[in-house]
Every structure is written in structure tokens, then in C-alpha cells.
Amino acid sequence: MKAWHAGIFLLLFAAMLVPATLAAGITITSDQTDYYFALGDTAAISLPVSNTYDHDIDGTLQFTTVEQLQNTGSSLTSTKNRVYTTTLPSGNSYLNISAGISNTPESIQIQVAFQYSDPSATQVTLPAITVHFVQDPSQHAQSQGGQQTSTSGAATSAFGSSSVQIVQQSVSVQQQAGRDASQSSSSALQNNQMSQDTSALKEQLQREAAEKEQEKTAFASALDADPLVQQVNETLVADGYSRASVDTNPASGSDGSFAMTYQNAAGEQVSLNGAMKQGVVPTVIEQSAAALNVTAPLAANTTYQSFVRTLGDKGYSRNTTLMNVTLSGAMVNVTYLTDKGTPAFVNATVENGNVTQVSLGLNEKGPDYLLIAIIAVVLVIAAVCVWLIWRRLKARKPVLPQASRQVRPAPVPLDYRKEALRLLSEAEAAYHRHEYRDAYGLAGRAARVFLSYDHGDRRELTNAELVSVLATSGRAGSDTIATLLERTSDVEFAKGMPDEGEFTGIVTTIRRMVTGK
After folding, report:
1. 398: buried, middle or exposed (CB in 10 Å: 19+, 13-18, 0-12)?
2. H/E run at residue 421
3. Which end of the chain is more exposed for a tag (fewer CB within 10 A), N or C?
4. Phi-psi region for residue 326, left (φ > 0), alpha (ψ -120 to 50) or beta?
């Protein structure tokens, strides 16, 4: 009987462990099904990613765009697949994608899929989203569609290499006529028209293919000649890395986005991302889990060196490096971890060869009991002194008639919508002044002020309190709001790097939430 009870207990224990094992996975979300961009603007989209594994996941990302050209009698579909390796960090992050730039109205369908092995082949495929290039995006605010989410599942097939596929289809047109002869004549005319249209469409395709090939070649040449790209390339080559892949998405010969991968002999990879505007690359985002060179001025800085020694003495080891590099300097974020996963951050700014700012974000565990004891003694002594002084003054001071109580005016209610919009304007102004941490902090405060007054007890709540209030209120999109608040706090407290496209999206989301438009 005891053995039977022991078997039942083991089965129940195993059943409790299975859900915890299966719970880990990756979720990719799109806030909308349709995104609208003005003509000439870069179609940049940030997709929230949730990685519930306790470690980073290496995998392959497939980014597919489908464009359709149509003329009377025939339809032409152009499909482009881009495949490259990437790493999704543990926790919440963003996957930045771009559909390029268009100067003419058109719609492009985008499909995103991420495939990895942990431990078996697993795939996350986001439902298709559509990017529309229009004259006035504000007129389509009500047509953006709802949120879409995709989680990990069994992989259906392996990703191939980058490719471009063009498919031509015939579109039949039937016309009714009263007689067989007129039907035959109409059919002949239709076939003749279809043949003419197909030839014209082929010529159009050939011209566009040639133009795009010229744009791609010109963009690649401009990219290789760019001073910032050359500088970053020389630095990585000096550190033993060589360029492994290049993925470009040109809108013209001088505008577009790009992504590069570098690799050293040990297999360690560095990813570069950036955009070219009018033939100039203003900044490059450099990211790697390897111990990258953090620029010569910072590496030689005594404060930075003392931070590195302090972290080493406390059992921290270097984890990831993220740098926002320009010709004049760089913004550097280096993450450190302990064996138990406790993070620490070193953030620095280098301008014109000088280290203008370096700081250490360290989560110390355990209270400082000596400091607490000193503060307690000081407070006790201060309380005794105040009591003695009060007793002596009370003995000497004559009793005075109680002053009449002044009536205070009633407080003016806060126009929290107006206050939230004012904070958003200050956030945008701070970002333009390159005060990125203040900008993200003001944007997060704008969201907290509005939501606290709209759902809370009319006082500004913390992020944790606000998430709890939104969960009980049943407000739509509460998960997205929680992610937004977490992201603004990360950058405000130097746990993440700013991104112009992401910041614009955050401000737009908050302003739309406040105004209801």
C-alpha cells in the first residue's frame, strides 16, 4: 500500500513539473494588422517580443515582403525573402523591422517568422501585417486593426536563403453577349488585350527590376564609402572580426536601411543595424554577446576601469555590449551578470575622444546594517534634543490666544489630459536636445498621469501599481501599456538604449491614448 501511495505522489509531482517546463517560449506581437506611413517616410515597425526562457535564444529570422502590381488582364506578385541569424534576449525586448520607403501610394504585406532549436525545432510565425504608403496617414487611424500575437510552436520547414520570386497570373474577364459570333469576337479581343497587357507588364517589370538593381548597387557603393561604416568596419577587423553577411533594403540609391553580421574565428558574432539618409549614415547600432572593444578613450578611462574591477570582485562577468556609434563618439551600454543572473550595467558617453559620462548601475543585495544603526542613533539623539528644547520653551512661553484658523481655498482639479499632453511635448523637446533618458522618463510619466487619473485614485501611481490597476479595470491593451511603461523606465534608468523610431512610436501611442484619436 505504501508503494502505491509513493507512486501516486511521484506522478502528481511530475504532473506539476510538466507545465513549468512547457511554459517557456517566445511570443512576438504586432500592435496592429495595418500600419500607415506617409509617402517618403521610412516604414519602421517595432514588434514587442517576450522570451520566457531564462537565457538568450539564438535563431534564424525570416522577413518576407510581398508586393503586387496589377494591370488589366494580368497580375504580378513580387516576393522577397530575407533570412539572417539573430539573438532574442531573455525577458521583454523589441524586434525592429522596416519595409523601406515609397514615394508612390502602395501596400506591402509583411510576414515575420523566427525559428530556433531549444531543444527541438521550434518556430514563431506572426500573422501577416500590411504596410500602406499613403498621402495622409491620419485619415486611416480607424483602419489599423487589432493586436496580433504568435507563440512558439513546432517548426513546419527549414528556412532557405535570401531570394526574390516573381509570379505572373492571368485574370480572366467574361463578358456576356447575345450571340455566339459576338462572344467569339469578344473572346478574341480579350485574348488580344490580355497579350498586350502581359507584354506591357513584363516590360514594366523589367524596367522596375533594372531600376531596383541600380538602386541596390548604388546603395551598396554608398554604404561601403560611408565614413562611419568604414570606421566601424576597421574597428571590428582590428578586433579579429570579418563581415559574414549584408542585408540591405534600399528605397533609393541614397536612402534605406541595412543590417550586417560580423564573425570571428571563435564563432562569436556582432550585429550592425542602421539607416542611410541622403547618402549619409548618421549612426550605427552595434550589438554583441562577445566582449567588444568599447572605444579606446573609454577603455583607458580610470573610472570605467574601477567599475570593471569592482564588478569582477563582486562576481560579475561581462554579458552583452550595445553601442550607438557616430563619427564623433558613442553611447555605450555594457551588461554584466552574476552566476545567479543578477544584472549590473555600465553606461558611458564618449564625444570627440573624451569620456563625458560614465555610471554604474549595481543591484546590491542585503541592507547596510551599519548605516541603518548610525541613522537610528542619530534619530534617537535628535528626538531627545527636540523634546528637551520643547519642554524648556513650554515652561517659559506664555499662553497665547489661539489664532483664528485661515480658510484655504479649495484645490483646483487637475486637467490630467492637458498635463499628460504637456509632458509629452516636453519629452519630444528633450529627445531633440539628445537628453534621451529625460525624454523617456517624461513620456512614461505622461502615461502614468493619464492612466492614474483615468483608472486610479487620482494620484500618480508607480508602474507596478498601475499594472495592477489596469489588470483589474479590464482596459484593452493593458499588456502593451505595461510593456511601454517598462521600456520607458529601462531607458530612463540606463538599463536600455534609446531608439528614435521606438520613441516616436511610444509618444504616438500615448498621445492617441490621451486624446482618444
Report:
1. exposed
2. helix 416-432
3. N
4. beta
